[in-house]
Amino acid sequence: MPEFFNVYSPPDAWRHFLRHYSPQMRTERILTAAALDRVLAEELVSPQDLPEFPRSTVDGYAVSAADTYGASSSLPAFLSVAGEVPMGQASSLEIGVGEAALVHTGGMIPAGADSVVMVENTQRVDDASIEALRPVAVGENVIQVGEDIRTGDPILKSGHLLRPQDIGGLMALGITQVTVAVPPRVGILSTGDEVVPPDQPVAPGQVRDINSYSLAALVTRAGGAPITYGIIPDNRAALEAAAAQAHAENDIVVLSAGSSVSYRDLSVEVIAGLGKPGILVHGLSVRPGKPTIIAVCDGVPVFGLPGNPVSAMVIFDLMVAPAIRAALGAQARPKQQVQARLARNLASAAGREDYVQVRLEERDGETWAVPVLGKSNLIYTLVHADGAVQIPLDSGGLRERAWVTVYLH
Amino acid sequence: MPEFFNVYSPPDAWRHFLRHYSPQMRTERILTAAALDRVLAEELVSPQDLPEFPRSTVDGYAVSAADTYGASSSLPAFLSVAGEVPMGQASSLEIGVGEAALVHTGGMIPAGADSVVMVENTQRVDDASIEALRPVAVGENVIQVGEDIRTGDPILKSGHLLRPQDIGGLMALGITQVTVAVPPRVGILSTGDEVVPPDQPVAPGQVRDINSYSLAALVTRAGGAPITYGIIPDNRAALEAAAAQAHAENDIVVLSAGSSVSYRDLSVEVIAGLGKPGILVHGLSVRPGKPTIIAVCDGVPVFGLPGNPVSAMVIFDLMVAPAIRAALGAQARPKQQVQARLARNLASAAGREDYVQVRLEERDGETWAVPVLGKSNLIYTLVHADGAVQIPLDSGGLRERAWVTVYLH
After folding, report:
1. In this complex, which of A119, A156, A337 lies closest to B338 when CB atoms are compared?
2. What is the model's pLDDT at position B339?
3. In Å, how far is A280's CA from the nearest CA of chain B?
4. Could you read off the pLDDT of B85-139 as tens digits, one per residue?
5. Residue B153 included in any domain
6. What residues of chain B lie within 8 A of the CB of A198, using their CB?
7. Which of A8, A35, B101, B377 is 20 to 30 A from residue B120's alpha carbon, by CA?
């Protein structure tokens, strides 16, 4: 079997994957107050007008605007004060011609009034009367019924990631529970006879497990629930058993394979045996990250990631994180990014996407992206980087001083 | 007392605040595997070289490079195979002149070898010998001892927000526990006689509490631990008692005040009574958000935020989130941002920072920032926005089609 038999560009690979993946979303009902950063799984429309009564936006006097027309400091409009609107209550006042009612910010506009003169633009005459020193227009300094949102207006779409202001907006309407997507379970397997758990002593020739932990954290960040299966010994029976268990227990499976050709061949065979249609993509035209396997096995996406940590993270961002968002039914959101000037020329081969790790530096008030040199099998290449710059498929490279988009880690 | 007596620009207000605030950071020791998005509270240096032994980056034959000089397909270098390096073990092999050892990706380079010939560039002669078809240089296809990181090299600084790759990098070194900052407790008080809890029926003249919930979510996002004190009735004794309790129990206190002048005056007096030096800033040259109070009372920052939700969020981002990061000892990170074209002219007064809520739209492959019109007392202005555009202090406004930075919510 040739080592790579089904090489795709990342966008083509993603489309090919989507043709074979039908996410089975699970939902749950939770308190809105606890729904920060969860993905909404229902369409919400407003059950009411907001506000439900006309409110003043200032401290002042609720009036009929017509009574103030032509008012000025030299010729003020005389108004008799019918009373004060109490906060948090409906006012029983009814404002007649030539009358005004004291109202506070947020207070209800009483019947008969259509606008509010700011207190700064009035002058007290006596206990029962004021002078308006400026005219107001109809509706001035008033939030109308339904001006914030109206009954039946769409609020938020299914797939929306709930932010602080969304929680506030739902609370304003008394929507104290919401239906959200349950985080998909993502099973993570590491392989390699040289890999040992980080809390155990290492002997010469051994290395500590990195990917189980960095991948689990990436799954959490993407909105999934990571389940780690530890380090699987490098033999067919052990890997088949562990992969079958992870496949049965999870919505998505990620294998971080040993990096030698024999490990990779074993991963291919084990993944292919997990179900239909099996392996869709074997090899991505991206650097780092070429030795990637993408499969759907009896409805469960299975990703075979390159063993080295930089490649694993690049491919996670390109393929696994979007698959987790698809499982959540989440709308696409712009990635965290900053614009920066490139600190040196970067070469690339056309027909391949490159991801170059960079660190950000401020120089003379501009942000610069400084490529972090280092092999993709070095974890500290990533630790020393703030983000990555993409060199597109059709580009031969990027010039020093060019403005580039840095996708932050 | 004049309503605003101490108006600052946001940068000046922040500097003035910092002169009076000395964060008292608390730390705790936790598992590195559970430290995602926590703030590191120690300087870490590498306790060892990584890797601790030279490793192969390919599948191939470990050799002494000198034995391959001049090798080609027509004139290969003949090498006798001394054995195979087992994965995860130190090899007892010692490679002499004219010898090679089979090694897998990640395997240890045996003594006497200084480079690896890729298996693709060799040809098997018999069980005990191969031909190298290309020369290799000293160090080729080898990760040297300490090439990833060396003993004593700085790893991460105190104040660093731990990302997935940082967790991987620490695990690689066997650093399975870290000291991190304890999230500061942030007490949140809402006031206003018209405000009722969202899960209760509202009568005419009443509105549901928004800010307790959106502020709590903002505190969580900023890395703090929100503690809500509910809705405080609008009288001096109740507000004084609640503020004193929150001041005693928290690292930072946030009051979301009723929006009328009398409420604001009451907030000023209650905050001023909480301790020394008291109110530092009363009024910010920013729209929305002018009626902001910034105080430090016996070491505890106290923020009086405007009652309307848009202003409260703008000021939270400008002042409270940075105060939480200061309490965590966290390094500044670039804000989430995207570049977009402005969809219409925006006017502004010089001498004032403006924050305009925008939603993002894709048009012809470009991202546009479309201002969301709506009064700053409307929560759905925020719900319909993806982010905000800043119009700087010294600017008279921004032109349609200009490229702007949108800070994402």
Report:
1. A337
2. 87
3. 25
4. 999 988 889 999 999 999 999 999 999 999 999 999 999 999 999 999 999 999 9
5. no
6. 32, 171-172, 174, 176
7. A8
- Of B403, B296, B285, B299, which is closest to residue B342 (Cα–Cα)? B403
- The answer on A293 and A190 residing in a single domain is yes
Q: Are residues B235 and B94 located together in one domain of the fold?
A: no
B30 interfaces chain A, CB cutoff of 8 Å: no
Instruction: Looking at the structure, tell me whether residues B261 and B322 fall in a common domain.
Output: yes
Of A91, A168, A260, the CB nearest to B104: A260
Give whole-number Cα distances, A29 to A71, A175, B200, B217, in Å.
56, 12, 19, 19
Q: Which of B157, B160, B155 is nearest to B174 (CA)?
A: B155
Please report the ipTM that was assigned to this predicted complex.
Answer: 0.94
Whether residue B105 lies inside any domain: the answer is yes
CB contact under 8 A, A334 and B205: no
Q: Is there a single domain that holds both residue B186 and residue B316?
A: yes
Q: Are B202 and B306 found together in one domain?
A: yes
First to last CA, chain B: 36
Q: What is the dihedral of CA B334, B339, B345, B351, to 10 degrees?
A: 20
Q: What is the per-residue burial (b if ≥16 Cβ within 10 Å, else e) of A267-282?
A: bbebbbebbeebbbbb
Together in a domain, B302 and B382? no
* CATH number for A352: 2.40.340.10
CB pairs under 8 A between A and B: 283
CA A289 – CA A43 distance, rounded (Å): 38
- Does any CB of chain A come closer than 8 Å to the CB of residue B65? no
Does A323 lie at the interface with B, CB-CB under 8 angstroms? no
- Collapsed DSSP state (helix, strand, coil) of residue A396: coil
| A88 Cβ under 8 Å from any chain B Cβ | yes
**Contacting residues of B for A194, CB less than 8 Å apart:** 87-88, 106-107
pTM over 0.90: yes
CB neighbours of residue B30 within 10 Å:
14
| CB < 8 Å from A in window 365-384 of B | 367, 374-375, 377-380, 382-383
Judge contact between A125 and A131, C-beta under 8 A: yes
Residue span of the structural domain in which B171 resides? 27-49+163-181
Q: Please indicate, yes or no, if residue B151 is contained in any of the structural domains.
A: no
Any B CB within 8 A of A151 CB: no
Give CA–CA dist A134/B337, Å, rounded.
43
The total domain count for chain B is 4
At position A388, the amino acid (one-letter code) is: A
CB B265 within 8 A of CB B291: no
Contact: A167, B339; criterion CB under 8 Å: no
Does A362 contact chain B (CB < 8 Å)? Answer: no
The amino acid that residue B27 corresponds to is: T
How do the pLDDT tens digits run along chain B, 409 residues long?
Answer: 446 678 899 999 999 999 999 998 999 999 999 999 999 999 999 999 999 999 999 999 999 999 999 999 999 999 999 999 999 988 889 999 999 999 999 999 999 999 999 999 999 999 999 999 999 999 999 999 999 999 999 999 999 999 999 999 999 999 999 999 999 999 999 998 899 999 999 999 999 999 999 999 999 999 999 999 999 988 899 999 999 999 999 999 999 976 667 777 899 999 999 999 999 999 999 999 999 999 999 999 999 999 889 999 999 999 999 999 999 999 987 777 888 999 999 988 888 899 999 999 999 889 999 999 877 789 999 999 999 999 988 888 999 999 998 999 8
The first and second tokens of residue B189, run together, are 């008080």
